[in-house]
Amino acid sequence: MRHPNGVFVMALSGLGGPEDLIALDRPKGHRIFAFPYLMFAPAFVLIASVSFIPLGYAIVQSFFRSPTLQLGRFVGLSNYGDFFLVRQGIETVQNSLIFVAGTVLIAVPFGFALAMIVNTPIPFRGLFRTILILPWLISNLVGALLWAWIGNPQYGLLPYLLQQIGITMPNIITNPAAAMVSVIVASVWASTPLVMVFVLAALQSVPSDLIEAARIDGASPWRRFRKITLPLVRNTTMMAVVLTSLHAFKSVEIILVMTGGGPNGATETMATKVFHEAFTLLRIGVGSAGAVMIFLLNLVFTLAFVRVLRTEHGA
Amino acid sequence: MTKRRKDSCRSLAAFAGRFATVLLLGFAVTFALGPIVWAILTSLKGPKEIALYPPTFLPQTLTFENYRSAVFYNETFLRYVFNTALIVVAATVICLVFSAHAAHAVARYKFRGSALLMFAMFSTIMIPGVAVVIPLYLLSVKTGIYDTILVLILVYSAWLTPTLIWLLRGFVNTIPIELEEAGRIDGYSRLAVFYRITLPLMWSGLLAGAVLIFANIWNEFLLGYSLVQSETARVVQVGIYANLTEVGVQWGRLTAAAVTATVPVLIIYTFLQKAFVQGLSGGAVKG
User: Fold this and answer.
1) CA-based, 20 to 30 A from A24: which of A110, A303, B88, B164?
2) Strands A64-65 and B244-245, how do they pair?
């Protein structure tokens, strides 16, 4: 009866396994159950004060019309309506989807393929690994500035080079589709390295004797890949998909630097619209409403993803 | 006969595979290096040559003037580098200490609300940075830490702690629990078990975390730009951005600053590369 709470918790959650041994071996009243909370407390306090409180404030702000930094008049959901319905609001949702899907659908297969290559014993493997990770070590700001400059229709390097071989590059400043492609290219450039490193890390944990055994048994390379490697790196790859999407969905630097959301809103995503509403138009309430929507959509997306992963595991 | 055909077929497939590999690798290297090489070349040119069109590739007259004026003899930029280094070190220590404790707690103990706690932690990864700039500004003004290095240290540590908890939790899971149980039997307290047994085994996870923290903070721009105004507390990315002047972008100076700013991250990464990849696999695969 000295630690009734703990026994109750464990009975409820039906736990087993070695963790419980540690929890049980020395009954000292409630101290045992305070210990993990105390271990977590510093991290929790830090995150609460720097992330939860500002988020809560942004949520409150999204219900007020705030032309200055002070809270203004309560307006209910009208900021949310403003965000989506006024000035190409729906198009920003569409642009976000294109930008995120474009980034993920290119960066993940590309990073995966590169990880497969630099996991095989090729010459200068270490050098290749370092070169391919380089874009990750450069800030989004600098990456975006460099791409905008290289692709610049008037004095950029890329249009010039393409012209030399007889190709006219579409103008990335005035052509809406070309502008979208250019920001996706910069985003892929920045996101591929981390996908590669994640998959590489997972590939290195695949036991090589397993592959070897399958090879001796006569399994083709494709079969070895599908039946052994892929299932073992699947979770990590999915994790990379989630992290890349979350990042692309909320990032603003690349688009703001390269196109500023233009031409005529063609590359304005939800995240850059939040920036423009809050900092250019000083409609902080509308900006907060958009930000809350980005947060909620991210949350729903991640939860759905986790659920899909779980059910596939159960099957 | 059929065997030979099969063999030649297989060697053809192997050749095609190798060809595709070389092609893809060549493309990837060009793609990854292109902007970087261009930045390095530009940083070694004078302003007149940079403005030339069609552009020159190798610098016609090699000059280190950009590095001299924008970086090494530019006291404000050096100050920014120093500030950022200070922030990175402090935030890395805070972040690693806090998240190692928390990761041990969630990996080894089942406690009421742990799942909810983890979920709440991870949900902060999904908060868009632009959303919290204004609240953080107000909050930091109210607490009197606006426009100081301290505000950036706190914000960056809080931002990276959830990711680090996730990474390190996976890492703790790879350490056999029997070691900790043996420690308990030997009479260590719970805390002593963590410090003397678990923590020393976590070093490659901690190093991987340090690389992740370093690269993220060193390259952050948005918050460094909005939460700090005075030069004494400014960070390096804001210093690079300062080369976008009203009379146009000073590409030579900008690329010199950007190239220099990348060197510390590159050095750290090169030294810790192995631990980084290993540490990630501990967190990502088992987590």
Assistant:
1) B164
2) unpaired
Q: What is the Cα B73 distance to its own chain's centre?
A: 27
Q: What is the pLDDT of residues A28-45, one digit of tens each?
A: 444 457 888 888 889 999
Helices (H), strands (E): how many in chain B? 14, 2
The label of the residue with tokens 């297969």 reads A109
Measure CA B39 to chain center.
20
How many Å is the maximal CA-CA distance in chain B? 85
**Distance between CA atoms of B183 and B178, rounded to whole angstroms?**
9
CATH of B74-286, one of 3.40.50.300, 3.40.50.720, 1.10.3720.10, 1.10.510.10: 1.10.3720.10
- A42 vs B contacts (CB less than 8 Å): 97-98, 101-102
Q: What is the pTM of this model?
A: 0.85
| A201–B284 CB contact, under 8 Å | yes
A220 and chain B in contact, CB less than 8 A: no
Query: What is the mean predicted confidence (pLDDT) over A274-302?
Result: 88
- The residues facing A30 across adjacent strands are A28
Residues of A in contact with B54 (CB under 8 A): 160
| pLDDT tens digits for range B2-35 | 556 666 677 787 788 888 889 999 999 999 999 9
Its ipTM equals: 0.86
Alpha-carbon gap, residue B177 to A20, rounded angstroms: 11
Delineate the domains of chain A, giving CATH numbers in brackets: 4-61 (no CATH), 89-267 (1.10.3720.10)
Q: Report the sign of the C-alpha dihedral through residues B154, B230, B266, A254, in that order.
A: positive
Number of inter-chain CB pairs under 8 A, A vs B: 285
Is any Cβ of chain A less than 8 angstroms from the Cβ of B115? no
Pairing of strands A73-74, B248-249: unpaired
- Which DSSP string corresponds to A25-36? SS-BTBHHHHHH
How far is the C-alpha of A148 from the C-alpha of A142, rounded, in Å? 10
Give the rounded distance of the alpha carbon of A187 from its chain centre: 11
Q: Are the beta carbons of A201 and B285 closer than 8 angstroms? A: yes
Query: Which tokens in the block code for residue B113?
Result: 């609300």
Chain A CB contacts of B132 under 8 Å are 51, 54-55, 58, 291
What does the DSSP 8-state code read for residue B236? H
CA dist., res. B10 & res. B131, Å (int): 56
